[in-house]
Amino acid sequence: MALTPRVSGQVAARAHHSPAAGLVQKIGPFFAIGQVSGGPLLIASLLALAIVNAPFGADYVRLWDRPISLSYGAWTLSRSAAEWVNDLLMPLFFLIIGTEVKREFVKGSLASWRTAVFPVAGAVGGLVVPIGIYWAFNHGTPTQHGWGVVAAMDTAFSLAVVAMFTTRLPPAVRAVLLAFAAIDDVFGLLVIAFAYTAAIQPWFLALAGVAYLAIVALLRLRWVAPIPYVLLGLAVWIGVFGSGVHPTIAGVAVGLLLPTRSRLSGRGFAERVQRPVDQFKEAQSAAEQTDDAEVAAEQQERAQTRLGYIHEMAAATDEAAERLVRILTPWVSYIVLPLFALSNVRIHLSAPAIGAAMHAPLSLGIVAGLVIGKPVGFLGATWLATRLGSATLPEGVTWRMVLGIGGVAGIGFTISLFITELAFTDPTQTELASLAILCASLVSGVFGYLMFWHAARVAEA
User: Fold this and answer.
1) In terms of pTM, does the model score above 0.85?
2) Crossing angle of helices 427-460/399-408, nearest 10°?
């Protein structure tokens, strides 16, 4: 999500070839190919914001609202273009989130029980306090049911801010934020599932459960071929989608299943391929030295057989989770997230709307919930958990860094905008909520950046 050490080194090296080396190092993390990056999402968001507020903005919105239908005989499934992006593409992003979180909990900075409790406690505080603040502003009003808007954070943007300090902050900061973001997003998705879903279809949910258990069974059997996993993953998505629950939950759930350990260790690889390598060399040499075409063909076939064996053993040293993340990240960074922004950012900026937002309980509750509630809830809950002895502050992480994590958690952009569309049917309420989310995300991003910047300076002193 943020930058791995290898990608960080690549960014630093590229900066030396540019006359604006400092600028390249600052913006490089926002456009890193090897990790999910926030740069393309930021550009798409700004572009969508500009288009929506242009004279032809209404036509642009209608373009994304046009239905795209799939039909077979009497069966028809119709969704708007924006809904297809949300339902079909965004689960890929959350698949990566689930995979990254499992890796951190299994063998990363959160591998011990007490460090794992740390982000879980923070996620609980980062959910309860913002919702409480929103309710304090909106209880008893027609907008009180919109509390889910402050429940989740924008993972891509928050991790992009942390990526700017990847060489100046300990790796545990990224791990804690990643785990907090995943748990927070799962809470947000559960809010969507149970608070803003009209009806749940149990048979489809059962289909998702059966397919999910089948994936677990194949993993227990150490099944290697990827096709069954792909088909079962699609079945999980279809089941969750058909049940009425938002299908991004399917992405997180499947991601948590992916193995984070290779099937074959480096030593095991060396032991298994030593003899096949010798046999490959012998067969290749025999094929090159003989004048008999039939013998040469037989030796070439034998060499290719050994080469196939070596190739499969090499593949066994690769983690399934890491391989999937490596394949998906460029598509998610440069296609999925930008399309989400282009289709979902529909914030109209006008003097009357901004004036109304400054006094409406709805917008005030959202801004206070995200800007104040997220950092206070995360910091307070994690501090309490450490004081009670149930959690431990991860190695190298300071409380100022924790406050920075809580700060960037207030960037509620993508998921908050999505929940807004579900929570409010009144266009005026939707507009007020969207303006508040934009304002809160900007303030939270700046606040988090300043906290990390100050923490990095203190750590380097």
Assistant:
1) no
2) 160
